[in-house]
Every structure is written in C-alpha cells, then in structure tokens.
Amino acid sequence: MCSHDNHLYAVAVHGGSGHYSRNQFSQQERQAYRTGLERALRAAEAVLKTGGAALDAVQSAVAALEDDALFNAGCGAVLNAGGIAELDAAIMDGTTLKAGAVAGMKTTRNPVRAARAVMEHSPHVFLHGSDADAFASRQGLTQVDNAYFVTVARELQLAEAQARGETFSISKFGTVGAVARDRLGNIAAATSTGGMTNKLPGRVSDSAVIGAGVYASRHGCAVAGSGHGEFFIRLAVGKDISGRIEYGHQTLADAANHVIHTSLASLGGEGGVIAIDARGTIVIAMNTAGMFRGVLKESGEPETGIYADEALSRSPASL
Fold this sequence. Notes:
By secondary structure, the chain is of the alpha+beta class. It has eight helices and 13 strands.
C-alpha cells in the first residue's frame, strides 16, 4: 500500500503482525481490533488536526494501544517464562534524531511515555529494568502493580506455550507502533511491546532498539516494525529502510518491500513495517498473513485492515 498528500498530516498505526487464519477471529473480535486501531488513530488525529507535532501524535497513538488489553503492549502484554510482563518501548523524532528507549519495565503503566521522558529529561537514549521504572516514577509517570498488565488470555497463552515445551513463542499479536507526519513535514515513530510469550526474563525486543524496530529521519522515513525481533535487530530494519531512501535514493515502497520481502525473508525472519516519509507517503509492507493496521489522513476517515490480502477500509461500525 502506498499513498501521499503533500503538506497534510497523516498517521499510520499497527497492532502486530502474525500468521493467523480468517477463521481465527469472530466478526465481533475483528471489530474489536479495528475499533482499537481506530481509537489510536483518533488519538493521533486529535494532536495533528490542531497543528500538533508528529512526535506527540505517535506517543498518543501508542499510549492508546498500550491501554487496550487486546494488544501486546502495556495492559494485555504477553508474559515471560516466569509469568511476568516485561515491557519495552521507544520513540524517535525524525527532525532532530533525538530518541528515547526503555526495556524490561515492570511497573510503568505507559512505557512509551517513559521512553519520551528518557529522550527529553535525561542525557541518555536507553534505560533498562527497575532503574527505568524508578526514573519514570521520578518523572511523575503512573506506576502500577505488574498484575495490572496481566490478562487471563495471556496467562492461558503462556501455559499453552510451556505445555508444548516451546523455548519461546512468538505472539501473533506483537509490537504496537505508530508513525506520523505533521503539517510542517516533521515525522516521528514510536513502538511498544511485551515481547514474546515465554521469553527468557531480561530479553530485549527490537521495539526498544533504535534503528531496528523503530527509526525516524526526515531525510529518509519513519518506521515502526512488528515481527521476530531478533531478525529486526540483526538487520537494523528501520535504519536500513530509511538509509535506502536517504543514500540509495530508493522510493519508500521499494525500500520497505526490499527489506521485508528480501533481506528479512532471506534469513527466515517474519514481520512487517508501517512507514511514512516527509511528503506524507505511507507504505505498509509485511511477509506474514496479516498485520493489524490502520491509516488516517487529513480530511479522511480511519481505515483499518487485518489480513495481508485485504485493502484498508472503514469499519462497518463507522459507516
């Protein structure tokens, strides 16, 4: 998918890629996911339509997805091998190249807000573990018990993975992310995730690694990825897509599709990306059967999709 509208704001979000079949979800479940994506798009729109910055828009969109228990981020995150939610997030400003990231958080309600705080209120880019939670607390961010993040569905998912003897299980509802362009042409990206079901405690996802699952440069593009994070880290997926535009003068569509369908696939990696450039071009690329995703452009309505072979469309509930 590719579209652009110069000088207008635009935002894209995703709620994770995966191999899921058309009979996996009921109509009610599909609508619930689409509603969650629309809510995130509207959160970003509320920022952008009043002239707000792309950075604020992606933070608002991702925070909305963190608060939705359907998605693997914040409340509803998958659990590690010990039954604990460990949360990662990152955010990046494509104009200044400033970035913030957190990993292994266990008590901060909205990790994406913590990543933003690291970027703006510390001399660092990346904080990890209990010290990241302590920093977030000092910044006034809401703290919760780890049980807040845990849902019955994720507990069942963990039990099933462990019963099968899996070392780890890639959640079919992975990372959430957002990319946006504001009316001034600034772009930004943000991501958040609980990682992989039954992961080893302490594992860090690509969502928290600048240049891997998240990247933004006005000279290239803003990228938010979803998939098998180890491959995204090894390939520096976000930076590679942006660099192909900035240094290789490829189109956004060519860059994203090459990295996902050639580079990632050649290593056996699976996943997808949403990406936007400074002109407002939006590209969504994936090598999985689907990715929860949505787009909203200025003067338009939210359009969402689930399966790879379907076009984005307005939700029936919105018509």
